[in-house]
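Students often ask why inverse folding is considered easier than folding. One informal answer: many sequences map to the same fold, so there is more than one right answer. In these notes we will look at a single instance of the problem. The structure comes first.
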């Protein structure tokens, strides 16, 4: 096939693929343009998850009428003029590709009026084909109207995620920029609902409250490290407030949202020794440095950067986060052992009193939020499953692990994972006859807009699982009843678990919505690492775990126990072959 020049239309669509990956990409470019124009108010309106309509309006400087057609040309920008300007970029946009890319894959209308103009001008573009300019009345600023995104690229539409996922990407993007620019009032509407509204008063905690909730915003720890030449500020979560993935690690460099592995690693490293394996903090950090120390001309989306002093940036961020952690959440020190005190083994439990054979009955059901005393229940002969032998409790280590002796060696049991498995199987086994337990006082739970939308889609499934939940305001819900198997647990924690972000360990249950919801709830209400259990509660947990169908893993596939056989112990102590 001979070499030939691509048609302009095809070349524009190929170039657009580098900038416009999904609806959130369009929102990002238009919001950044509004911020570069000095806007104090930005409104974003979304319909049909951004495929039907994306509209971004601002009150910024606007575009002069004569320059409006030029603004839609590729590589046309007012932010660069010489190659030296690339070394000192102080704006979010500079490549001059965004508007041309968006206009080539949508039906695009751009309306703008500078403060010195008496009338606004409008230009329309349909998949790269322009109509003429027209004048009309409009307020000062710019309005970008994007309809039917990817209508001329059906293959690209096919690769978009579900509507809920695309809406979530847009919500998270706008929320991030609202945090980075608290002096700008943002208003995000999705399908007629206000998902985010900020006042523009400069208070970042107010935006955190809108993004998460007021309680979480109060718990976030401020970071302030105004060192030269690299200054770090923002908020981080205390060690007890974590997520199951890195989705809540947000970084802005010189006002630009970036995705950088070094910054993420620095923040996570600062929590070393404070987090469980597989848990990640919530981080919102703003790094300011001289523009010549960072190269933003790395990727068309401008989401990646390259640092001239990468190691120095890593160290600065890590130290700033660690200092804030130690100042607001100091690492607890172990109390020294008092003189005269020594470790002593746990006394053996008293033998249970045998019950008359005629009074034997099935053991009563336990509440999910508590572990029942094993000694107060009648002894019932039950067949032991081959998964785990009969175990004898030795004690608890580190307030997180149970030590038990079996006929074939030593067992170390993760109390949190084990309780997850027990609750999960109890829930699933009673699935067909789940009873609903009315709460004495209904519990009202307020959720961020994005999570409220997720919950709306799960209400029917939760109803089938014996929850009774009703809307109680724009983003509030009233929990009136929970499954009887969860009686004693925190209804608010159970409800919030339903709308938590996707976690990496949920993949085994990804296609089973009901099982995933149950596993999330069980994970949230199970006993935690660091929680002291009484000897009776420890024995009850071991007994319940022995009765499970799959006792060796939690619902997400993590191990509940480690087995050290007699052979392994003998090898470790050098006894094998010594006789």
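Output (designed amino acids):
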């Amino acid at each position: 096939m001979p070499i030939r020049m691509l048609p302009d239309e095809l070349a524009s669509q190929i170039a657009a693929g580098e900038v416009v990956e999904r609806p959130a990409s369009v929102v990002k470019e238009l919001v950044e343009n509004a911020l570069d124009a000095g806007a104090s108010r930005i409104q974003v309106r979304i319909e049909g998850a951004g495929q039907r309509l994306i509209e971004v309006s601002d009150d910024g400087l606007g575009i002069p009428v004569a320059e409006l057609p030029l603004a839609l040309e590729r590589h046309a920008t007012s932010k660069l003029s010489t190659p030296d300007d690339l070394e000192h970029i102080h704006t979010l946009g500079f490549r001059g590709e965004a508007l041309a890319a968006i206009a080539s894959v949508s039906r695009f209308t751009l309306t703008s009026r500078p403060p010195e103009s008496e009338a606004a001008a409008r230009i329309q573009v349909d998949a790269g084909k322009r109509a003429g300019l027209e004048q009309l009345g409009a307020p000062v600023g710019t309005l970008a109207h994007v309809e039917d995104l990817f209508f001329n690229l059906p293959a690209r539409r096919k690769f978009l995620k579900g509507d809920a996922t695309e809406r979530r990407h847009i919500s998270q993007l706008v929320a991030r920029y609202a945090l980075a620019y608290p002096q700008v009032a943002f208003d995000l509407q999705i399908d007629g609902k206000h998902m985010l509204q900020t006042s523009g008063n400069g208070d970042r905690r107010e935006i955190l409250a809108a993004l998460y909730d007021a309680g979480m915003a109060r718990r976030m720890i401020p970071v302030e490290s105004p060192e030269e030449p690299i200054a770090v500020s923002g908020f981080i979560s205390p060690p007890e407030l974590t997520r199951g993935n890195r989705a809540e690690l947000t970084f802005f460099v010189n006002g630009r949202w970036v995705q950088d592995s070094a910054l993420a690693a620095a923040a996570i490293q600062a929590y070393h020794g404070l987090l469980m394996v597989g848990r990640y903090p919530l981080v919102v950090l703003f790094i300011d440095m001289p523009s010549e120390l960072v190269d933003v001309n790395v990727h068309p989306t401008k989401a990646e950067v390259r640092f001239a002093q990468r190691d120095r940036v890593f160290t600065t961020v890590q130290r700033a986060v660690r200092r804030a952690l130690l100042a607001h959440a100091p690492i607890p020190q172990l109390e020294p052992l008092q003189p005269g005190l020594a470790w002593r083994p746990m006394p053996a439990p008293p033998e249970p009193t045998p019950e008359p054979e005629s009074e034997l009955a099935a053991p009563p059901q336990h509440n999910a939020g508590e572990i029942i005393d094993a000694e107060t229940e009648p002894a019932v002969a039950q067949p032991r499953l081959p998964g785990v032998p009969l175990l004898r409790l030795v004690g608890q280590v580190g307030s997180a692990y149970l030590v038990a002796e079996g006929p074939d060696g030593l067992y170390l049991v993760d109390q949190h994972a084990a309780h997850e498995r027990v609750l999960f199987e109890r829930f699933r086994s009673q699935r067909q006859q789940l009873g609903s337990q009315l709460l004495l006082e209904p519990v009202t739970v307020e959720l961020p807009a994005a999570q409220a939308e997720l919950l709306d889609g799960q209400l029917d499934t939760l109803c089938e699982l014996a929850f009774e939940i009703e809307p109680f305001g724009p983003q509030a819900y009233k929990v009136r009843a929970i499954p009887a198997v969860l009686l004693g647990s925190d209804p608010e924690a159970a409800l919030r678990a339903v709308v938590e972000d996707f976690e990496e360990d949920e993949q085994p249950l990804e296609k089973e919505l009901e099982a995933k919801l149950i596993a999330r709830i069980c994970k949230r209400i199970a006993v935690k690492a660091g929680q002291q259990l009484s000897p009776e509660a420890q024995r009850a947990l071991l007994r319940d775990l022995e009765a499970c169908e799959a006792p060796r893993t939690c619902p997400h596939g993590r191990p509940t126990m480690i087995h050290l056989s007699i052979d392994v112990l003998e090898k470790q102590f050098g006894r094998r072959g010594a006789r």
